[in-house]
Specification:
With 610 residues, this protein is an alpha+beta fold. It has 17 helices and 21 strands. It starts with a helix and ends with a helix. It binds adenosine-5'-diphosphate.
Length: 610
């Protein structure tokens, strides 16, 4: 490790101590430096020495920092409080302050996957430095020199090489190690997690314990049927069988690795049935933390290389024997003694690929996406280069519930499908809100500005600090203007600018059906509570690209199939990079089951199959 990096690490420890995810510091923070701290600056001083606090806007609210400066140097940055998502934003709280101090610049790059948090920290530091009399424009313009030395080729070797440190890749890595393999995981981003860590994280499985305790009837056959029919019978029934039969045993496997799920079983958006399980940790952080803990505990045989982008599968005599990649210091070549697993996720962030394959939606060039920036379809291209067959590439899933500004699922106020309705800009309902994701999104594209309001009542938010699964309280969302609250439906309609008579009529009609449980004019069948307990809430949403169902063809052993229908020896794939499981439409809650079930199978087989 380079010396400067070691110094940085020390600083980061300090910074991290104050930025424990989601913490709210109780430390008093003075707005102005105390008199003793202020020295008279010399003429060419950059700052008035002292300690200053500053505030910036993160994705989930305010970020507050404390910055200490001497005349010419920023010496310390402490994060006093923030409410960013644990796991997802942690890296921003270490690398941004560390980078500012190392380069004495506000021009450091934001962290991919934690962009808004990075911007919030930069804004907060700038705000503090402004009070210290700094020339902010100059600090922003100051060049951040990369320390890159001459290019060196790194060569490594492991039994199994996994490309991608999202859920599928890490599941494969852990499972390969459990089956006796040494493992190297290559990840192109600066942190593990991929889309998995950002996801709502609901995991579908038929659960003899939790569903029975909640009086929910279900069966593996019903899960099969809904998955198959929910994808218009286009998915491969053999793969779906593997998915639904292994979903619960794989959840138990995750629990065995230390992951916790709550006892709550619910219907996730587009999930069609109450069989979604919610991890105890927010978003997908539980999966990634669990796998990374396992890897850390077995670090003599397992390694995750970050900032290393795989570019090609190395083939020898028709067999996959390694991976070529590009790392921060130059090319990286990793030899795989037993097998290679491709787990690079989907291509929702690759507009060119989306437009190349899309047959269902209007042009997607301007549609936002829920995905992390690394979802660019690299694994699909690498696999095609070595002869892999692709299936179902045109099946692209959009969700109707993206944030209108960012496309993210953050800020979503819904708590359960049963208890909210959608209305358009006129205040009228337009779709069965318990329907398939594609059905809802297609209906949304027909509404004015492709725009909807989620409407629900306070039964979903019994206290103002009840959180959604993005760690955001309803009160924070209301305060930030990202949700609206009113004591009557008429008042709510006025606040969001829809026709009050229409909104009241829509809710009244919905409530009648909650009582009778009869399907309504849109065919809605999922009901639980009436919307009748003030205060009422509304939140705006738009279509957003979420999941690409198509990808590399695999068999039930997660082996990659070539264009002639034969197995490519040594090559496995799992997760969103694969195609053929979900057909035209993936059920909500099936992705997390898919990536874990097939990741586990791919890892095991890469370690053991000849
Ligand atoms: P899944 O849900 O299938 O696991 P994710 O999106 O969670 O998919 O994870 C895929 C991971 O693969 C991401 O972390 C992404 O950055 C990584 N990845 C994508 N392309 C490459 C590549 N060329 N080299 C290394 N890692 C990659």
């Amino acid at each position: 490790m380079k010396k400067s990096k070691r110094i940085l690490s020390l600083l980061l420890v300090l910074v991290m101590l104050f930025s424990l995810a989601g913490c709210q510091s109780t430390q008093p923070a003075s707005e102005e430096p105390t008199e003793e701290e202020v020295e008279t600056p010399s003429e060419d001083a950059l700052f008035t020495p002292g300690t200053y606090t500053g505030k910036g806007q993160g994705i989930n609210g305010e970020i507050e920092v404390e910055v200490t400066v001497t005349e010419n140097e920023i010496t310390n940055i402490k994060v006093l409080s923030h409410n960013e998502t644990p796991g997802v934003s942690d890296i921003a709280f270490t690398d941004i302050p560390g980078g500012i101090i190392e380069h004495q610049s506000l021009g450091v790059d934001t962290i991919a996957g934690a962009t808004e948090s990075s911007k919030g920290i930069l804004e907060a530091v700038a705000n503090a430095l402004e009070q210290a009399g700094a020339d902010i424009a100059a600090l922003k313009a100051k060049e951040v020199k990369s320390e890159k030395g001459p290019s060196v080729t790194t060569e490594k070797e492991a039994d199994v090489v996994v490309i991608g440190a999202g859920g599928a890749g890490l599941a494969a890595a852990v499972s390969a190690h459990e089956n006796g393999a040494s493992v190297i995981v290559l990840e192109k981003m600066p942190k593990p997690g991929g889309n998995t860590i950002l996801s709502g994280a609901a995991y579908n499985c038929v659960d003899p314990k939790r569903q029975e305790a909640a009086g929910i009837e279900d069966s593996v056959d019903l899960h099969f049927q809904q998955t198959y029919e929910g994808g218009d019978k286009v998915g491969n029934p053999e793969l779906i069988r593997i998915l639904v039969e292994n979903a619960y045993p794989t959840l138990e496997w995750l629990e065995g690795l230390g992951m916790e799920f709550t006892d709550y079983v619910f219907t996730v958006l587009g999930g069609l049935w109450p069989r979604a399980h919610r991890p105890a940790m927010p978003l997908g952080t539980g999966y990634i933390t669990t796998f990374m803990n396992y890897i850390e505990n077995n670090s003599s045989e397992m390694e995750v290389l970050l900032n290393v982008e795989a570019t090609n599968i190395i083939m020898e005599d028709g067999k996959a024997v390694g991976v070529r990649a590009e790392g921060p210091d130059g090319p990286v070549i990793v030899k795989a003694n037993k097998g290679v697993v491709i787990a690079t996720g989907g291509f929702s962030k690759n507009t060119e690929m989306l437009n190349q394959y899309n047959k269902t939606w209007p042009d997607l060039s301007n549609t936002l996406s829920t995905n992390h920036p690394g979802a660019t379809g690299d694994g699909i291209k690498m696999a095609v280069e070595v002869g892999a067959n692709l299936v179902g590439m045109e099946h692209i899933q959009l969700l109707p519930l993206g944030d209108p500004d960012t496309g993210s699922l953050a800020g979503n106020i819904e708590q359960a499908v049963e208890n909210r309705i959608f209305v358009n800009k006129d205040g009228n309902r337009f779709v069965d809100e318990g329907a398939r994701r594609d059905v809802m999104t297609k209906a949304l594209f027909e509404q004015e500005d492709h725009f909807l309001w989620i409407i629900l009542d306070s039964q979903n938010y019994p206290t103002p600090d009840t959180k959604n699964n993005f760690n955001e309280t309803i009160e924070e969302l209301v305060e930030a203007g990202r949700a609206f609250k009113a004591d009557t439906l008429e008042e709510l309609a006025e606040k969001i600018g829809v026709n009050p008579d229409n909104l009241v009529a829509a809710v009244e009609k919905f409530n009648e059906h909650v009582e009778t449980k009869e399907p309504d004019e849109f065919g809605r069948t999922l009901y639980q509570w009436k919307i009748n307990q003030p205060p009422y809430y509304a939140g705006a949403r738009k279509p957003t690209v979420h999941h690409t169902m198509g990808g590399i063809e695999i068999n039930t052993e997660a082996q990659v199939i070539d264009t002639n229908g034969n197995v490519i020896p040594g090559l496995y794939a799992a997760g969103e990079v694969t195609g053929g499981i979900h057909g035209t439409n993936r059920l909500g809650g099936n992705a997390l089951a898919d990536i874990n079930v097939f990741g586990r199978i791919a890892g095991r087989n890469a370690a053991t199959l000849e």
